[in-house]
Amino acid sequence: MIKYPNDLNIIFDRLREHNATIIIVGGYIRDFLLDANIQDSKDIDIEIYNISSYEKLQNILKEFGEVNNVGKSFGVCKLCLETLDLDFTLPRIDSKIASGHKGFDVKVLKDLNFKEASKRRDFTINAIGYNIATKEILDPHNGIADLKKKNLKMVDAKTFVQDPLRVLRAIQFCARFELKMDKELFLQCSKMIKQDMLLELPKERVYGEIKKLLLKSNKPSIGFELLNELQALEYFSKISFNFLSLDALAKENITKIKTKEILMLALICYKLNQEQTQDFISNLSNEKELAFRVTTLVVNLPIALKLSKKDFSDYELYKLATHINIEEINILLKVIYGVDKKIFMRAKELNILNHKLPNIIKGRDLIVLGLKESKNFKTILDAAYEAQMHNEFNSHENAKEWLLANYIRLSV
Fold first, then answer.
1. Inter-residue contact 117 to 23 (CB < 8 Å)
2. pLDDT at 102
3. Rg of the Cα trace of the chain?
4. Which one, of 307, 302, 310, lies nearest residue 336 by Cα?
5. Does position 37 have pLDDT exceeding 60, yes or no?
6. How confident is the model at residue 374 (pLDDT cuts 50, 70, 90)?
7. Do 296 and 327 form a contact (C-beta atoms < 8 A)?
8. Average pLDDT along the chain
């Protein structure tokens, strides 16, 4: 028996009042069977049979919250229920009629049986259903056996080829669940790549799969080995690094998802220069913060490595902290070069692991001492910060004395 959140029962009861057959399907069932932290799974796909139209399904679900009809053309109602993201889908048959991920003719058929409806799904492990009324697991394509054998197989070659994103999904699933790609699936993916079908995809969708590969895998190296074997992404061919270092990074206790994403990308790019790194990230995403933080880490990594190999001064460490997060770059030093924690430990003692040394002297201090705000403020403040990093003063009182002795000279 598949367990699911009790909060869903109130919705299921109302749907059954309309004679609906309710089947939970897809990733939630797959993860439950894998025992993959199912309590953390918030995305649930639910297929609804015997409901006559999308509008009727939408009207039933409106009682439980705002229904997002962004998936209307595919017969999908999206509903957020507290912490759950629910996709309610009518059974359908998809036919490819144009290039791109939206080029489909969709036929919703309320009487379609589960076996026929599930043919549109990508992999057998994602085509397992659970009938909540009969408490029966539905497995028309032997997905459970494939899960046990750690094999990734496509459901149907004719429907698989309709969405080129499935090539990347195959790669990231192999990495996330440590599966072996079925020979027929491998050949199909290779064929789709050679036909340049990935070029149909917007880069946001491509990076969405790459991000899952990097963030959800214990062994991202599996995915990158497949990327390499399939030559799936042309711009990855310019990257040269030890794929196993991704696995080492995946094992690090990084609690912030965004930080992990940035460190993974910095690891991939660490042999590139600034311009090459920026080009690489721009091929993946338009997110400016992502590009800035990854590039900053890549540019400063050689500096940090050089410091780790010598007796560095506190000033050098303070200076490094003005550019990057030392805790983050220390993780890269450890994973890539196997360096010790010398930089980490001293930065921790100086309380600059995650931020630069706080400025003691601020603009208001200059005003208090009688200076009028001007363009010279930045010059004075920069010089004061340099002096602070050189430990010429370490308190507000000493800082004032330093200003009184130096501000006239600095403001000329």
1. no
2. 57
3. 28
4. 302
5. no
6. confident
7. no
8. 90
Calpha distance 261→246 (Å, rounded): 11
Q: At what angle do helices 342-349 and 314-321 cross, to 10 degrees?
A: 90
Residue 155 in contact with residue 118, Cβ under 8 Å? yes
| 49-62 pLDDT, tens digit each | 999 888 999 999 99
Q: For residue 387, which amino acid is it? A: A
Owner of token pair 């603009």: 363
* Dihedral sign computed on CA atoms, order 269, 273, 275, 276: negative
What whole-number distance in Å separates Cα of residue 10 and Cα of residue 7? 6
Average pLDDT over residues 323-350: 95
DSSP 8-state class, residue 122? S
DSSP state of 38: G
Direct distance between the N- and C-terminal alpha carbons of the chain, in angstroms, rounded to an integer: 80
Q: Which residue has the tokens 């400016």?
A: 288
Residue that has been written with the tokens 């062994």 in this structure? 219
Q: Which residues pair with 88 in a beta bridge?
A: 46, 77
Q: How far is CA 171 from CA 16, 145, 187, 283, in A?
A: 38, 20, 13, 19
- For residue 24, the surrounding DSSP H or E stretch is strand 21-25
Residue type, 403: L
- What pLDDT does 390 receive? 97
DSSP 194-234: HTTGGGGS-HHHHHHHHHHHHHH-S-HHHHHHHHHHHT--G
Tokens (6 digits) for 193: 């790549």
Q: Distances in Å between the alpha carbon of 268 and those of 64, 122, 280, 407? A: 44, 29, 10, 46
